[in-house]
Structures are given as structure tokens and as C-alpha cells.
Amino acid sequence: MAGSVNKVILVGNLGIDPEVRHTQSGSKIVSFTLATSDTWNDRQSGERRERTEWHRVVIFNERAGDVAERFLRKGRKVYIEGELRTRKWTDQGGQEHYTTEVVIDRFRGELVLIDSNRGEGGFGGGSSGGRSGGSSGNANRNAGWDAPGGDDLDNEIPF
Amino acid sequence: MAGSVNKVILVGNLGIDPEVRHTQSGSKIVSFTLATSDTWNDRQSGERRERTEWHRVVIFNERAGDVAERFLRKGRKVYIEGELRTRKWTDQGGQEHYTTEVVIDRFRGELVLIDSNRGEGGFGGGSSGGRSGGSSGNANRNAGWDAPGGDDLDNEIPF
Amino acid sequence: MAGSVNKVILVGNLGIDPEVRHTQSGSKIVSFTLATSDTWNDRQSGERRERTEWHRVVIFNERAGDVAERFLRKGRKVYIEGELRTRKWTDQGGQEHYTTEVVIDRFRGELVLIDSNRGEGGFGGGSSGGRSGGSSGNANRNAGWDAPGGDDLDNEIPF
Amino acid sequence: MAGSVNKVILVGNLGIDPEVRHTQSGSKIVSFTLATSDTWNDRQSGERRERTEWHRVVIFNERAGDVAERFLRKGRKVYIEGELRTRKWTDQGGQEHYTTEVVIDRFRGELVLIDSNRGEGGFGGGSSGGRSGGSSGNANRNAGWDAPGGDDLDNEIPF
DNA sequence: TTTT
DNA sequence: TTTT
């Protein structure tokens, strides 16, 4: 009710193959790391410098998760639109930590395959595979597509 | 097969009260103009300059349309996320024209009320009104919310 | 002074090779058309449907224009961030028309090459070509990079 | 060589007054926390639920920092466009931590005041204050606006 | 036609 | 710690 916007837009390359897990209620969760990099000329030295940023992407949306699982692999380029979410967790030593993730959930977010050369591994897709964006994001066009347990999905995740 | 993105993000003020119409199939369409403005200092004259840009926003999404109809009025500030769509039309003289609009449809887009002072006219809102973003956009959480006629909705619009 | 935002984000493919022209004051202007497409399943027929949207992109920023001129070609995929601008023009018959464009100017906007396989024509780029985004957009890091005539650049354009 | 995009768009309210500090080289750094919130109806219970997300915003851009320092206060609403950056730090106990921030630096990012009711404290602004977006972001229109030390600015920050 |  |  706040009148707020929380949006992240990334175009980058996967650092790992997508990892798939399921909640107790059966919902699929797909996650991976995504690299973006920035290059610029240092003003003083004149040298070319580069910074790579790693983002953790987590997909709760079933359709987008399916697309990620089927078509994304380490090294692939993808457009991700999601929201920032920071969660708290405690390590074995009892230390508290915070991790910020880019989340595509069932309400919002999008995943678009940017590479044209998908399918290198023979997992197909072909011309039918098509654009993931349309079928991911917020679509929810098939009734009841997400599992019971719904809204507290996040609490079930054992990262 | 596209791997494309078509996204517009606007924060601006309505130039008119939202206009509501319905397709033959009963779907609601809400539209209005939105002003954004830019100011800068002219390099040569040093004068302050301003340019106002007018955008035509068209909402096919029922929920976002409801929010717009209920809470938006001329002068209000709103965040709009939609996609660019250009349509062709012919004037009475037979001349062809093209008009580009920012569209929120049932698949994509969002509308967030930015003004806190909504409700000036007493049309309420209250705690129920709430934030439109969550309920608009792509939600479609209530089954079958859009009327038959569906995908060729656009062709029915008599602008 | 309005507190407004006017932003367009596109990922699409060029429909033509970039066209380069110069204002009387010597500034370079690069423009091209960009296609984005959307596919979805029609609810009634169940058929796969597709809509292609064409956008006109105009670059006033010298750096982004340089990158476009050197690396972009018909068919290439690019990420464009710009603002919407609608201009009025009159055809030979005296008819008035409006055209909406996505503009990258010296203040705002960005262009990022998305294709990895740039350089097909042997115009190089190599590993040095690098990311265009950093050097385009709003950088203006080299003093006085844009030509005299500055702020009324737009008025000089003979589209 | 990346062809990547790293962009965050937030509209939210400040949780604190902006904090201002300076690097050894004299550059100003302004930071604050920003809240965005999301509300939705729980599917199971039907109850209204809300999640508030807190973001840490850090501004290295001098102009945007000036605007933030002058016009932003706890509770104000602002549009922020920046990039995600995660930095590592070690607490007193020797424990390593990571913090993700939304950064506006001299190359990229934007800050737009959304509240119309700025100036509550009488710190003015008037017609001069105006919109920050134009003067922040990437402008760098006044030569040499940022202090020596430039590119490794980030390393000097003692958060 | 909006807003500051 | 914000806001509605």
C-alpha cells in the first residue's frame, strides 16, 4: 500500500548451471549466479579497468523456472527482471548473515533468453522454444499452476 | 524465438481524468495522457530550459484499469510500466497515421499510485484501495477475469 | 523540475544498418529501427500468435553513436535505454504527423551490444571493443566532446 | 567485452536522514536506507500480507549527492536508479560479511524527488532546487567535478 | 492537458 | 528505520 517500486534489470551470463530444488509443498525453485561486468578507463593511470559483479538469482515462478531449467546453462546470456530481496540466515557458528537476491516470483519478474545459440547440448527447444519472457514473468495463465503452500514459499527454502 | 524486451517506465502527471470505455466483448479499457518533463541549463544561453513530453497510456488489464478509474485523476502522479505499441489508423480524409502508446495489458505492465494525497474527491480508497502495483500488473489472480474476445482486444478499440 | 521519469528499455534486433547524418553544427546523429516481438498462445484458438513491434531509435550522444556506427548492423541484437520523444512534422501534402522515437542524448541513455558475434564484417572490435555501455550513455568524460550548437540539436534534424 | 546490464529502479521512502561523509580525497558520499513494500492477499488465509524490503543506497555522484543532502529527509519518497554492488567487509570478530548496495556513481544512476512537499524544514530549494534527475545521474557537465582519487573511490569508504 |  |  506504499506506492513503491522494487525492480532489478540484469543482462549477464550465468556463472553456473541452474540449480533446481523443490519445497516441501512441491514448488520448484531454480537459482543461479549471474555475472555483469563494467569496464572503464581509470582517470589517473589511464588503464583499462574492469569490475565484475555477481548476482544471485532465485526463481519461484514455475514457468520461468521451467525455462531456466531447460534452456539456461553456465555461460549463457540472459535478461532477468526481478525484485531485490534480502534474507537473514545464521551460519553454523551462530553468526548472522544477510544475503541479497534478485527474485522472480509468481507475481512479478521476467526471464528472457538472449543467446540465440541455445540448444548446444541437444536439449532442443528449436524454433518452438521461443521467447521465455512471454511465458514466464507474471503470466499465470493456467489456473492453479503453483503448488499449495503458496505465500510462505520463501520460508520453506533451505538455502 | 525473439529474445526481446519492450519496456517503458514513466513517472508523470495525468493531463486528463482517465477515460473509460468498453469493447464489444465487455472488457474495460482505460486511457489517459501522462506528462513527463525535463529541465536543463542551455549551454549557450545559460538559460533554464524545459521540455514536456506527453504520453498516451492505454490499460487493457482489468485490475490496473480499475485502480486507474478509481484513484487516478487529472494532475495525479503515477508510476507506469508498460510496453510500446504503435498502431495505424486512418483519418476522415483517408490519411494514414501512426500513434505510439504505452500499453498495460493482461500479460505485462504495472501501475503504482505515487501521490499520497489520493482521495481528495472523497471517492475513498481507504485501506482497501491500497497499492495498485500488487493487484495490477500481471496478476490475473482471479480466474477468467478478462472477457471473451481476448487476444484481439486491440482490434476492437475505437479510438 | 517535475519529478518525472521517462525511460524506455529495449532488447531487440536492428531492422536496418544504422544511418549516420550530421547536423549543421557537426554533431553526429545515428538512427535505426529496432524490432521487438512478442509471442503468446491465443486463448480461443489455442494458436501461437506473434506481434512484432518496430521502434525508431535516434542517438544524439556521440559516444553511443560511434559504437552504433562501428558495431551495429542489420540483424544485430542490442540493449537500448533511452527516453520517449514525440515530434511533429508535416508531409509534402501539408498533413501533420507525429512520430515517437526512443532517444539517447548526451544526458541520458545507453547502448549495450548483446551479440557476442560482432565483427562479422571484419571491422574488428576484438577484445578491445568491449562493452559499449560504459563508454556511451552519459559518460561525457572527455571534455567538450559534443559540438557547438548544443542544446538545440534537435531542431537541426532533417528527418 | 561484457555486454551486460546492471540496473536497479526503486521508488520508496527514506528510513533515515541522508548520511554524508567524505573520502580522504574530498569526495562526498551520501547514503541512506530506502523502504519499498509489497502487499498481497494470502491465498490460503485470505489475509492481507505485507513485506517491507530495506535497501541501502549509496551515492558517489556529487550532484545527486548534493540533491540528496539538500532535499531528502527521513520519510521522503524518491525514485532511485542505480546499480547493484556487493562489497565484502570484516567485522571486529574477524567474520567476513557481504553487503549489497544500490549505487549511484559518477557514470550512472539517477535520483528524482517524487514528493511534491519538499521544503518542509524551510531549507528552501525554491525554483532553483528543481528536479534532481537532470542534474544528477550522469551529467558531469561541469568539468572536473569529482575529486582526485577518482576511480578507487570505493576503496576509501569506511562504512 | 500535467507538474514544479 | 519508511510509507499507506
UniProtKB/TrEMBL annotation, chains A, B, C, D:
Gly residues compositional bias, start-end: 119-136
Listed GO CC annotations: nucleoid
Name this protein carries in UniProt: Single-stranded DNA-binding protein
Record organism: Gluconobacter sphaericus NBRC 12467
DNA-binding region residue numbers: 54-60
Region entry Disordered, spans: 118-159
Database matches in HAMAP family: SSB
Biased composition (Acidic residues): 149-159
Keywords: DNA recombination, DNA-binding
GO MF annotation list: single-stranded DNA binding
Record text on subunit structure and interactions: Homotetramer.
DNA-binding is among the record's keywords: yes
Biological-process GO terms, alphabetical: DNA recombination; DNA replication
